[in-house]
Every structure is written in structure tokens, then in C-alpha cells.
Amino acid sequence: MARRSPRRSGRWLLSTLLLVAAGCGGGDTPSRQPGDCDGPCPVSRINHVVIIQQENHTFDNYFGTYCTAAPGSAPTCTDGPGCCEAGPATEPSGASPIVLDDAANGAYDPNHEQDCELREANGGLMDQYVTGTTCSDPRNFARADEAVIAPYRALAAAGAMADRYFQPISGQSSANDMYFMRAQWVFTDNDFKPDAIGAQCSFIRDAMSFPGPTLGHLLADAGVSWSFYIEGYDAMVASITGADTCASAPPDCPAGIDIYPCTYDPSDIPAAYYTDFADDPAYMRDFAKLQQDLDASALPQVVFVRGLGYHTEHPGLSTRISDGIAFVQGVIDAVEASAYGEDTLVLVTWDEGGGFFDPVAPPGDGADGQPYGTRVPFLVVGPFAKANTVSHVELEHSSVVKFIEWNWLDRQTGQLAGRDATVANLGSLLDPAATGEVVPD
To answer: How far apart are CA 225 and CA 302, in angstroms?
Structure first.
């Protein structure tokens, strides 16, 4: 079957979205009703998914003192913090963790290039983060201040959390982000930036675009609406058509610089690496439009949300964890207060561990031959989550792709012929009584 142009399909969806807001739920008016589909109806009752992408923290960073089971005990129960392992009091060299509060987070960014991370992990011994390599540092063993991180722990208690969710490839953010679009290796570390708006303001030197297929192509071909909502995007667009090269830093950005983490960097957006989607307003929307689309009953079915760097918790450059948490909570609150609250699954992910210590060895290489990195947090929020559940199923970013394929592409997973064909789905985190269909593990 011939592939429909994603650009044409996306623009048609955008222009007609209000007309079809009643979807397969019927109705004579464009106002949205509970249970309506905003496009092809999904397999389950999950009509929308919102994926919030944060940055550079390990599971142990944030939840090492939330979990209470003995370190190394591998509990099989799934009911709350007593069913996940507490972080060890010391790491293998005998060092104790520092307290990762807002000040400590903003003061130090660990080396998280792949070569460094593989040496620190040391074949799964996880024993060279503090000492033993040129990139070891005592600050690599850090746990978040419990008062600062409390809102995330409340989300875990009210929803579901995975304690075996690994970054799909050891190394830096961009390579890991690509798994949300491609579910397999595209490049390593931050080797490339997209040839797209904002590239002129990126730290990354080399620009590159890649061919599909991607998750975006699969969704567009099936008529499933999707988009990235990106903080700072419109400001960067305006800057290249005006007198400035880069957008100006927002006044509340602690770093106060006109580049990352205060302005938009396209290397955080995997869709921007593909010419079918880069800078197309059907797929690349400013974050401010999220609230507008929620209010107008115009939310796409699959949504990715990315804040500016100082709202993602990325360590260094004066970035505060509390600012990232406030950003995430704001998105969740906006979705829950909207007409979409009853049928939307919210997923909160961290793209990679940022070079911080985690005691659990990664599971080796993925199906594409690339080495997994450390565990990262993964939270499931909303009416479809199994409340106060801890899943021990091995998961990664490609698991999100697999779930989207299953839910919106008629259970046909593995269509990208990547890890989406082999990784686990998200069923262990979801309540089948709420979803109406049993999502596979």
C-alpha cells in the first residue's frame, strides 16, 4: 500500500481536528464528550497519551530512599515502596551519597558520554562511578533531597512506577531520545543535531537528517494525530525571522544565557531529525499551545511534551530539580482539569541517567546490539494506572513505542523492526478494569 505523505496527512488532521472531535463517539456538535475518539479509535479506553520527557537522573537518584525493601533482595511483590529495593548505604568503593538538592543539582553535571558510562558501569559491577576512571567523581553518587522530590513520590504512590526501566543506550540524551521515534539505534551520544530551526544555537557541531520510517510515519499513515509540544519553540522561530540569531533567555532561567538550558535546542526533539516532520507546525507546536488545544478539544491522540532545559532537571548550569517538578506537575494538572482527564494516560520519563550511579546492572545489549544504560525513573499517572504499583518488568523507551503501536495500530507491534518487536509492553503498570482491555506486559 502506498505511503501517504506525513506532511499532508498531518496538516489535514490539524485542519479538521475540531470537526472530528466527536469521533467514533458520535454527536452533532464539536464539543468533546467522555469516551469520544479524536481519530481512529484505540484498542483500549486510553484515547490519549501524554509523554513528558525529563532529563538525566537515575532511579537511585530519585527513588533510592523511597523504596524500602532490602538492597539486592529482588522483591516480587508489586504493592508500594516495600516492594522495591532501597538504594545501598554505600556504593562499591565505600562512599556515601551526597544530598542532591537544588543547589547541588545546578552545580555539577556528571560526564555522561557513552565511553565514560561504560567504564563506570564496568561490565555490570557498577563500581567505578566514584573512583577508578578519569570521569569518576564522588558527586556521581547522589540522592535527591526528600523534601524536594516529594511530589514525584506522591505521583508514584497515586499511580504506578517501574523499577526496571533502563535508558535504551548508554550515553547522552539525543541518542536515547531517538528511541521514542525509531525504537532502535540511530547514532551514539549527542553526535548530531537536527538540520532544523534552532540548530544554530545548539552546542552540538554536526547537523544531520535521517530517513524513516518512524513512529510518526506509522501514526500519520494510520490517521492518528500526534505532536510534540515544545517550550520555547515559537520564540526560536521568531528569532530566526527577526534581528536575533537565538531566542532570548526567559527572565526566570537561572543560567541567564541565550542558549541551552534557557532556549530551545532541537537536539532534544527526535522528530526534528526527520525531514517529514522537522518544523512542520502539525507536529512541532509551542508548549503554550498545549493549554489552547486542551481548551479547544483539539488535543492530538499521541502527545510528547518537552520543557526548556531548565525545566527538565538536567544537572548543571544552575538548573533546579524543583523547577522541573513544577513544570511536570503543571502539565499533569492541565490535562486532569481538561475534558481529556478521564481518557488520558500520562507517562513521565527521563531520557537517560546523566552519569549518576545506580546499583542495578543494565541488562546487556538490546536487540539492535547497543548497550543499555542505567535505570531511569518511569511514572504512570492518571485513571488507567495501577495505584501504588511497582512494576519489575524490564522496560525502556521502545516499550512506549510498542504500547502506542498496540493501542492505536490494532495491536500490530514491531512495525519499526527494531526493539519495538522484542521489548515488553506497559501492561504491568496499567489497570485492566480501567483500560477495558488487557494491555500485554
So the answer is: 6
Show the cell assigned to 363: 541488562
* pLDDT mean over 143-170: 98
> Which backbone phi and psi does 180 adopt, to 5 degrees?
-70, -25
| HSE-CB of 213 using CA atoms within 13 angstroms | 16
Identify the H or E element spanning 62. helix 59-63
Q: How far apart are CA 178 and CA 188, in angstroms?
A: 10
111-138 as b/e: b if 16+ CB within 10 A: bbbbebbbbbbeeeebbbbbeebebbbe
CB 430 within 8 A of CB 439: yes
Over residues 105-120, the mean pLDDT reads 98
* Length of the chain (residues): 441
Give Cα 323 distance to the centre of its chain: 17
Mean pLDDT along residues 249-273: 97
**φ and ψ of 288, to 5 deg:** -60, -25
* pTM given for the model: 0.92
Angle, nearest 10°, between helix axes 321-336 and 288-295? 20
Q: Tens digit of pLDDT for each residue in 378-423?
A: 999 999 999 999 999 999 999 999 999 999 999 999 999 999 999 9
Please state, in angstroms and as integers, the Cα–Cα distance from residue 314 to each residue in 35, 115, 175, 301, 318, following that order: 37, 20, 16, 28, 9
CA distance 284 to 301: 14
Q: How far apart are CA 231 and CA 315, in angstroms?
A: 18
What is the DSSP annotation of 6-34? HHHHHHHHHHHTTTTTTGGG--SSSS--T
> ω into residue 432 within 30 of 0, thus cis?
no
What is residue 348's three-state secondary structure?
strand
- pLDDT tens per residue across span 264-313: 999 999 999 999 999 999 999 999 999 999 999 999 999 999 999 999 99
| 146-158 and 321-336 helices, crossing angle to 10° | 30
Q: Are 208 and 198 in contact (CB under 8 A)?
A: no
Helices (H) and strands (E) in the chain, counts: 13, 12
Q: CB neighbours (10 Å) of residue 108?
A: 16
* C-alpha to C-alpha distance for 58 and 355, rounded to whole angstroms: 8
The candidate with the shortest Cα–Cα distance to 350, out of 151, 148, 166, is: 166
DSSP label at 166?
B
What are the b/e assignments for 374-410, b being 16+ CB within 10 Å? bbbbbbbbbbbbbebbbbbbbbbbbbbbbbbbbbbbe
